[in-house]
Amino acid sequence: MTQQWMPPIYRDGDAVAILDQRILPHHEKVILCTTPEQVIRAIKTMAIRGAPAVGVAGALALSLGAEKIEGGVEDFRRRFSRLCQKVKEARPTGANLSWAVERIYSVVVENPKAGIAELRDMIRTRADAILAEDVETNLQIGKWGREVIPRGARVLTYCNAGALATADYGTAVGVIRAAHEKDPSVQVYSCETRPFLQGARLTSFELMRAGIPVTLITDNAAGSLMSQGKIDVAVVGADRIAANGDTANKIGTYMMAVLARTHDIPFYVAAPRSTIDIALPDGSGIPIEQRDPAEVTHFNGKKVAPEGVPAVNPAFDVTPNKYITGIITEVGVLKRPYGKAIRKALGV
Questions:
Q1: Which of 219, 239, 246, 317 is catalytic?
Q2: Does a structural domain hold residue 262?
Q3: What parts of the chain have a pLDDT lower than 50?
C-alpha cells in the first residue's frame, strides 16, 4: 500500500497552509500563513517551490492581503496594486507567479464599480479557482504525457516537478505517475539536483510514496547511465517557456538535455500553458534568479568549501528548443515548429 502526503498548499480556514519543503523528507511540518508577507517569505526561502505551486501561493497571498487592506475603495485599489507587484517579485524566473498575479489583479481592473467587500469575495473566489484548476491541469498533462513514455521505460527526471511543485499530482512527475498507472514496469532515475537537492529529498520521496520504482543518482552520473543504454526517455518540468520553446528550468537541465541529444534520447518538458511567456521571443530574455552562494559553499548548515572561496549560484538555466523533443501541456504534446504550436495552444 502506498502512503499519501499532504498537499503542498491549501486553505485552512482563514489561513493558507504550506507544507515546508525545506525539511522534507524527514519532517512534515505545515506553516500557517495569515498575511501575504508570510507567504512571500515562504516563496523566497523555498518553503514552497516549483513554478505552478508558487503561482498558486501568489494567488492565495493576494487573497489574504485583500482581507487586510482597510480604508476607502480607491485606497484599497492602490494598495492592492502595490501588493500585486510585491508578490510578483518574490521569485523572478517562473512565469506562473506573474500569470497568477495578473489573473487576480484583473478582478480589480474588470470591476471598477465594485466595493471592497465584493472585491474581496471575487479575489478569494479567483484564487481558489487557480488552486483547483492547477490540479485538473496536471491530471491532463499526465494523460497526454503518458502516451510518449515507452512501455517498460527507464525515465530520467531532474529536480522536482511533482505534486510538491504544484497544487497536487505534478507535471513531469505527473507524466511518470500516469505512465506507471498504465504500465507498472515503468521505473525512474531521479537526479539529486544540486545544490538544493530537490531530486534527492523530494522527487524520490514522492515516487517512493506513490509506489513507483525509483533509483537516486548523482547529477554527474546521468551521462554514464545514458552511454550504457540505461535511460530511455527524459521528462523535466519548466519555470518559464519562451514563445519559441526555449525553456528555463532548474540549473543543470540544459546539461541533461545536451546529454540526451548526444545519446539520441527523447527529452520532454512537461508544463501547463501558464508557464509559457508569449511576450518573450526566445530564452535570452528569461530572468535568471541568483540565489545565496552559501547554498553552494555549505551543506545542511555546515561549511564544506574553503573559507573565502567565491561561489555563484544561478537557480535556473535555459535549454534551447533544439534539444527539446516535445512540450507536454494540458492540451496536448507540442511539437516543432514550437512558435506555431505554442500560438495554437494559447489560442493567439
A1: 239
A2: yes
A3: 1-3
